[in-house]
């Protein structure tokens, strides 16, 4: 299913109480000839409509559709389907009865639809989120109130269980280099394509990214942004660990390594997280975009170029607890650091601006040359004075 360019896995389960008919009814066994629309019982004495079909001969398609968008979850079916089962629109609701269905006309076809935003999932009675290392499952039920006549109920209750499945943890491995100059990957999880990107920016406004290998002076700020670009503004993003190496290989054992972030916590005193708003401090794991900075440095041994690597983790929108680093527990930091279900992003090289020749000191460039000139001049003055004195003595002797 594709909606607005977003591909999602969808599971739909329908439980319809009025889909079973006995032999004495219109839907007799001889009418149940298409197993795709009508299902016989084991004793072949009764039949029921297959999921999504209805009417006396199970020959009508309810056109039931589940829509899983990055901003909402919805289910709909044609109006005639509910009228056949004597279910009025006013009786349709989610587990929380305050979340009611609506009637919508699409291409001149009337539908009954229930659509809620992600932030109302829990309020409307959504089931506890189910997750593993790859998926998050949102499950809801569309229900009808029983139609009471006197003190009896004759029409069955309709219940539609439906589930939307979204990706949870991204596992990414990036080639090097990448053009444009950023660290980006497109990863397919089931039927969903999603992208995580890491870029360096020229200043604290995060308005202009480097388009080539940046050259930064020592102690200048390095501005890093890691963001989920597709689907945008849905998942919470946590940057678990960031470290710099002298090699483009993130797990190399050669050369020096310097850790900036460890399990989402600052491991370098110059590291600061930034909010999306200008000039405000931020926190790791609060949104789908993480921004932080650190002071430029270099390793003591050559090569001086740096390669930046970060591991990232995605959290469902309501799970702030999993995305909030516990920076006060050393044991927990060490345990989570070994979590294999993390994505890896690499960026580089970042070059350090170092002059080719060491700068001369003021003594060498100014004082000594001036002193040399005065010394030579003073020496010549002495020679001239001695010469004149010798000439006077010679004249007196004559």
What's the gist of this structure?
By secondary structure, this protein is mainly beta. The chain has helices at 79-84, 320-323, 330-337, 362-397; strands at residues 2-3, 6-7, 9-16, 20-22, 38-40, 46-49, 53-54, 60-61, 65-68, 72-78, 92-93, 102-106, 109-117, 130-131, 135-144, 148-149, 152-153, 158-167, 183-189, 192-201, 215-216, 221-230, 236-245, 257-262, 265-266, 272-274, 289-295, 306-315, 343-352. The longest helix has 36 residues, at 362-397.
Explain how this protein is built.
The chain is mainly beta and 398 residues long. It contains four helices and 29 strands. The strands form eight sheets. A six-stranded mixed sheet has the order 21-29-28-23-24-25. Strands 3, 11, 14, 15 and 18 form a five-stranded antiparallel sheet that branches. Strands 19-20-22-27-26 form a five-stranded antiparallel sheet, with no helix packed on it. A hairpin with a 2-residue loop joins β24 and β25. 28% of the residues are buried.
Index terms:
rod-shaped; 29 strands; 398 residues; 4 helices; five-stranded antiparallel sheet; mainly beta
């Amino acid at each position: 299913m594709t909606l607005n360019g977003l591909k999602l896995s969808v599971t739909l389960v329908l439980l319809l109480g009025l889909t079973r008919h006995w032999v004495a009814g219109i839907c007799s066994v001889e009418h149940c000839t298409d197993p795709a629309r009508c299902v016989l019982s084991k004793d072949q004495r009764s039949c029921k409509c297959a999921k999504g079909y209805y009417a006396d001969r199970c020959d009508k398609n309810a056109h039931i559709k589940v829509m899983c968008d990055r901003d909402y979850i919805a289910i709909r079916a044609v109006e005639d389907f509910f009228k056949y089962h004597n279910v009025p629109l006013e009786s349709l609701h989610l587990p929380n009865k305050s979340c009611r269905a609506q009637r919508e006309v699409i291409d001149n076809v009337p539908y009954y639809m229930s659509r809620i935003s992600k932030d109302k999932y829990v309020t409307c009675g959504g089931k506890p989120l189910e997750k593993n290392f790859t998926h998050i499952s949102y499950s809801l039920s569309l229900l009808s109130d029983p139609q009471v006549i006197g003190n009896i109920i004759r029409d069955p209750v309709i219940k539609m269980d439906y589930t939307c499945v979204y990706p949870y943890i991204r596992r990414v491995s990036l080639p090097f280099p990448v053009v444009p100059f950023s660290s980006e990957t497109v990863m397919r999880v089931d039927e969903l394509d999603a992208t995580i990107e890491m870029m360096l920016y020229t200043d604290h406004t995060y308005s202009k990214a480097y388009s080539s290998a940046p050259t930064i002076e020592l102690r200048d700020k390095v501005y890093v942004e890691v963001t989920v670009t597709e689907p945008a503004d849905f998942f919470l993003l946590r940057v678990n660990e960031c470290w710099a190496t002298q090699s483009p290989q993130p797990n190399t054992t050669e050369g020096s390594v310097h850790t900036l972030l460890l399990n989402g916590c600052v491991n370098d005193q110059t590291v600061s997280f930034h909010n999306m708003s200008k000039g405000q401090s931020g926190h790791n794991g609060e949104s789908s975009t993480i921004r932080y900075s650190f002071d430029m440095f270099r390793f003591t041994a050559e090569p001086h170029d740096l390669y930046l690597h970060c591991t990232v983790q995605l959290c469902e929108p309501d799970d702030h607890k999993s995305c909030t680093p516990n920076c006060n527990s050393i044991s927990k930091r060490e345990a989570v650091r070994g979590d294999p279900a993390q994505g890896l992003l690499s960026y580089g090289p970042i070059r350090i601006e170092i002059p080719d020749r060491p700068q001369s000191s003021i003594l060498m460039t100014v004082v000594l040359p001036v002193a040399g000139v005065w010394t030579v001049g003073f020496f010549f003055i002495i020679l001239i004075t001695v010469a004149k004195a010798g000439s006077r003595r010679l004249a007196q002797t004559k």
